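lol ok so funny story. i was supposed to be doing the assay writeup but got distracted and ended up predicting the structure for this chain instead. priorities right. anyway since i did it might as well share w the group, maybe its usefull for someone
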Amino acid sequence: MVIGLVLVLGLAGFFYLDRTSKKEPPPPPPLSQEARAYAKNLKLDKVEMKAHESYLKQSVVEITGDIQNVGDRTVKLIEITCIFYDAYGQVALRERVPIVSSKLGLLGPNQTRPFRLPFDNVPEAWNQAMPQLVIARIDFQ
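and the output, tada:
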């Protein structure tokens, strides 16, 4: 009887954890009105894309460039959504990555900082064109 109860509880726990692990995380919040107005002060410059093979024979796509803050506020976080498309114009990969964060240092007024975004999970169906880069989040100091 005890063994049967333990098995039932174990299976119930397994199915509960399996079900909750498959839930997608909630979508990130949209760009605030204040951030949307300030986005025009952030300029991406010298953006280039390179693809190379890693030591593990895995294709790595790397986007490099500079971000410039031409506004009058100090920014502590900027996240970019990179959208890769396939040959038919369908989204092949959408990934949100930080290009400025408190770990990397703040971006003050009239400052420029280089960034590097490596992607090792771009699907083979990708059209090999520069992905669309969209500012997804801005946090101010």
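The longest strand covers residues 42-53. Strands lie at 42-53, 59-69, 75-85, 91-100, 111-119, 132-140.
back to the writeup now i swear
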